[in-house]
Amino acid sequence: MNETWAHISDLAFEAALAGYVVALVCYAIEFASRRGGDVPADQAAVAASAAATQRGGTSTLTRTGAVGAADIGPIGALPAPAPMPWGDRFGRAAVIVTVIGLVANTVSIVARGLAASRLPLGNMYEFTSVICAVAVLCWLVILVKTGARTMGLFVMLPVVILMFVAGTVLYVPAAPVVPALNSYWKWIHVTTISISSSVLMVSGAASLLYLLRGRYDRQQAALVSGGAATASNPIVQAGGASKASMSGRLPSAATLDRIAYRTAIVAFPVYTFAVIAGAMWAEVAWGRYWGWDPKETCAFITWVIYASYLHARSTAGWRGRRAAWISVVGFVSILFNLFFVNMVVSGLHSYAGLN
Predict the structure, then answer these.
(1) What angle is formed at CA 160 by the lines to CA 250 and CA 307, rounded to 5 degrees?
(2) DSSP label at 37?
């Protein structure tokens, strides 16, 4: 083992964790600074917009009061650019620090592999580090595609928790693996299962936020349909404002649903191949393709759940909330398989460095 590379790996891991924590704080500040962009200030405007939508027409936003010279400004003068809100500044800083943390995380993984002269996926510490790196990379790709930056808080929170657990509870020094793991099928299986699990975790998080956003939208629709009676009730009004302050800052339900579905579409074939590669590795290491080991059983259950989710998305009666709940169950199954089965249940996969 190369002690120099091992030390570099540990330092880079600590730098990655620090970067992710700073990014999480910046995302949280930006999220708190939002006033719920989808929450109208005037409930009369909401009712007018809803009525126009039901009639098939469009609503018009009008401005009261006369337009004076101060509104127009000097002839030929360009309006001064509006200063960037301080919340957006923290949001942009969060993205920059996220990228820096991902670079440090990648350096830690590569240095760990060089230190142990193998693929750095031999124990739970390394496996969790790779999962966090892939999840952050997946989130950055989603950010570029959708611009849903407020979702970053809910992606980075589990990443920071996993990184902290990896660096404290799961950490083991770099070392060679046991002979039974020295198979190319093992490296294929663990690499693909870590990548697919990371992306499916992002999909599950998006589904959870989709359910939260959908609940908020339904409550707002109820407030609009309630009319003046609801608006005049201070208790209901305060409850609506409280929910608006949380859910109104999230991306739209359509955006969250699209993120959850497309990430699952990408990850599910990779997860399927990972399960097959695991069976091939089991035949090489233990002389059988499948033995209903706890890890194998849980992986199969997770596969069935996500297969059901994708099937539900193609079935009209199961789209929306029902399909999203299936995705959330799959998210819980992945976390259960990753931690509980490896750390608590005894089986042939109890080689994570904790037993």
Answers:
(1) 65
(2) T
